[in-house]
Amino acid sequence: MNIKVDIDMTPEEVRRLVGLPDVQEFNQQVMTKMMEKLTAGAEGFDPMNLFQASIMNNTEFAKKWMDAFNLFSSSKN
Q1: Is a pLDDT exceeding 90 seen at residue 9?
Q2: What is the C-alpha separation between 72 and 68, in angstroms, rounded?
Q3: Residue 58's closest CA among 10, 25, 34?
Q4: Mean pLDDT for all residues in the chain
Q5: Residue 18, C-beta contacts closer than 8 angstroms, at least 6 positions apart
Q6: Does residue 50 have a pLDDT over 80?
Q7: Closest Cα to residue 54, out of 35, 27, 15, 36?
Q8: pLDDT, tens digit, 9 for 90 and up, residues 23-42
Q9: What is the C-alpha separation between 30 and 33, in angstroms, rounded?
């Protein structure tokens, strides 16, 4: 017996369904900071350092990603 279920959902709806964090505002802030630095001509600017510092300081963000990972890994069993 085969059962097929089609679900029509937007990426935003899937993100909310599985409980992933909404990172649109975070991404916009990172891009804004990067553009400010790039247009100012800052020498030695490394966008990865800005990104890593933001992620490492946001423990709630990391916790939500780990929760999502655990949700997917536990559903495979």
Answers
A1: yes
A2: 6
A3: 25
A4: 78
A5: 68, 71, 72
A6: no
A7: 27
A8: 888 889 988 988 887 777 66
A9: 5
Cα(12)–Cα(10) distance, rounded to whole angstroms? 5
* Residues 21/61, Cβ–Cβ less than 8 Å: yes
- The structure tokens listed for 8 are 């029509």
| Under 8 Å between Cβ of 44 and 37 | no
Tokens of 36: 């400010």
What is the spatial distance between Cα 54 and Cα 59, in angstroms, rounded to a whole number? 10
Confidence of residue 62 (pLDDT cuts 50, 70, 90): confident
Q: What's the CA gap between 11 and 58, in Å, rounded?
A: 23
Dump the DSSP string for 29-72: HHHHHHHHHHHHT-TT--HHHHHHHHHHH-HHHHHHHHHHHHHH
pTM for the whole structure: 0.39
